[in-house]
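seq as requested:
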Amino acid sequence: MLFLEPGLRQGRRTASAGMSRNEKYKILTAELDRILHPEKENNDEVYIPLNYKLHSPYPNPFNSSVKITYDVPKTSYIQIKIYDLLGRHVKSLVSSTIDAGNHSVIFNNKGLSSGIYYVQMHSDNFTQLRKIVLLK
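struct tokens:
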């Protein structure tokens, strides 16, 4: 797994002396795959965030659904829940072990009235809240 700071991209590694045959083979195979399938070029980069983060939901305010994006720096048990303005639990969106990386979940407003809601992400020693506004 490759750990990068936000904004940095994975550098290309070339086969060189001092590497085992297996390492050279893997690098050359990856390079050949990159040449034969250039459409995959941007999809093979790895981004592992350094910190937990709950991004601003989009769109906000929303009508039918809202996309909630979050970062996980290491494999962790993640909970993402929706609460109403009075702090009552409305819905659990995520409640499982999630691999490191950038993830997203869609929240649909089925059965909810217009108003202000809160998205809470919780894991280990991290908790973050974001406000979302539902307009019908």
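Confidence is low (pLDDT under 50) at residues 1-15.
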